[in-house]
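Hey everyone, long-time lurker, first post.

I ran two proteins through the pipeline my lab uses and got sequence/structure pairs for each. Pasting them in order. The first:
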Amino acid sequence: MFQQIRLKAWSEGLRSQPSLPLRVELWNGQRFDFSPEAPRVTVRVPRPGALRYLLSPSLYTLGRAYVEGALDVSGRASDMIAVVNALAGDPLAARQPALGRLLGALGDALGDALGGGHTRQRDARAVRYHYDVSNDFYGAWLDPNMVYSCAYFENGSETLAEAQLGKIDHILTKIGLRPGHRLLDIGCGWGALAIRAAQRYGARCVGITLSDNQARLAREQVQRAGLQGLVDIRLQDYRDVGGQFDRITSVGMFEHVGVRQLPAYFRRMATLLAPDGVAMNHGLTSTDPDGRGVPHGGGEFISKYVFPRGELAHLGTVVKAMQQGGLEVRDVENLRRHYARTCAMWSENFEANAERIKGLTDARRFRIWQVYLAGCTHAFAHDWISLYQIVCGKAGRDPAPIPWSRRYMYAQA
């Protein structure tokens, strides 16, 4: 009875706000509509105990309720995220000091719960949880080259496949890759960048990953391309790599490193980089100056269900860590808008291939990824998180390999 009273008050308060394309259906057949138009999202509450998720909404609690099957939600993923965000309230409220401190502490709390910091074994487990779903699962919604990172849209009208290839070329042009260069790709995914570097530039490439599935498929791709003499795919931690490289790329990987470990990570990169070498870090960042998490529990959802042990640092923290690690920042480019479009395309592909994907994984993981991809689209579009490409070299060196003008980055192929 008490929950029913709270529900009535909640629904009346919600109706006083701008209309939402939402319908809530209770276990007893009672129905609440919050817009005169047909609902785009329907939430079915199967039992009275599930009302608590609606009465104390956040991106985490509602996302968890959907993933775990406590609430049944139907509608397009993008509409679901928009409605959930509205229910959770103003996302900027999460940046208030008390809640902000709580969100900022989530990474440390998660680390404590899992038994400590970023060791090789724990990082490998976290990476495999995320990436070793199945290659067919990722292939159902990624581009044909299986590139799982922010694409680059030269004009904004490119297909996903064109924009992903454009991203790889943009990176290889930025670092000034030349024939015969020795390239290390940290977090090589399914091998697309290393293969392109070998095919187009004749570079000798080492790609490393902690994912068994990625390494296996990447090696198959290398063999099909006839590049065994130029590309070496290794199942290896970055801390265990030896030698020196003319160029180093790290694309969508350093989010797994841990904020406190960033200076050591970049120090390792500097050690592996040749004296006149060039490196690039392409990775996600927090847009909060104090490095707090994604607003309103979104970060907590990602930590629990998507990226265990993942942490985002603010751009300023990254630049500082690079300097502490012995690297000089030479160029910075913000690709947040590009990642919003990339995630939107992934989410659309996921929705379009939903029936196939359901046959490739269990219902729980399907719901996790459905919410995650749509949520990331919203987060990038609203400046909750960002993506930066940072070109760097060894500190204290003459950056001779880099031209005086940035024009070379956009030269026509």
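...and the second, right after it:
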Amino acid sequence: MLSMLLAACGGNSGEKEESSDGSNDEKSEETSEGPELGQKDLTQPYVAWARETISTHMLGALLEEVGYNVELKQVEAGAMWSSVADGSTDFHTSAWLPATHAPYWEKYSEDIVKVKQVLDKAPLALAVPSYMKDVNSIEDLKGNKELGESVDWTVTGIDPGAGIMQNTEEAFEAYGLDNWELTSSSEAAMLTTLQSAAENEEPIIVPLWKPHWIFGTMDLKMLEDPKEIYGGDGDQIYTVARNGLEEDAPRAYKVLEQYNENYEMINEMMPKVHAEDQDPAEVVREYMENNPDQVDKWLEGVPRE
């Protein structure tokens, strides 16, 4: 009876105790189904654009959920692409293709893997406030002296390395906008200038894209682009990774393969970060807590730690 009682109480010291979920704590990584962890430390570069801030923090949080240490590194567009290509960072989820980031893809495609399309339609264009009733197409800018003088013949741009800035320079040439000039600053500075102009119903022209939180707070219109310099119906957005990441961090790569987005999701979170100045890490964590079924889809078949 005593020996039976000891056995029932786990008196065999040669066996490992199981955790409450039935797994062996000491050997959980070895016995868990799904891809191995591999390289535990990952670096994800990003540009602090509207959607990219959300998406980058979301992927970082998901990867930490499955056992990784993820460093989010804010950089300019050129460095975002080049660092993944040379292997000093691991992946980014900000590849706007085939049009906007075409020069980067052409330069680095041999060293970068296109992992997953995360958003199927991301249009870009020049944009104006809707009260500018007589401006509906990029063609309306050509030779438009009244409009040109009212904005000092200037399109107010963002950071110079952004693909949409290169598109805009191409548009100037394609549409014969010889008198026009594109200024560069940052997305935040451009939006401040746009909002200031709109408060007084002053004319202004800026490069913009969707998804973007500003469309939820201002009445704006994207100008028609009959020559499709900005990619027609819009780019698709992809997650891309350095060569070898799939072998070095199989679990992370599977998460990247399963992660996707939709406008409803992005539009829910962008205003909280960019209009209400909430911490993006807290915003994505809140979304994950409120949408466990979505998180389960992103992490299907991936062990969590």
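Reply from user beta_strand_b:
Welcome! Quick read of the second one: The first strand starts at residue 41 and ends at 46. Residues 1-31 have pLDDT under 50 and may be disordered.
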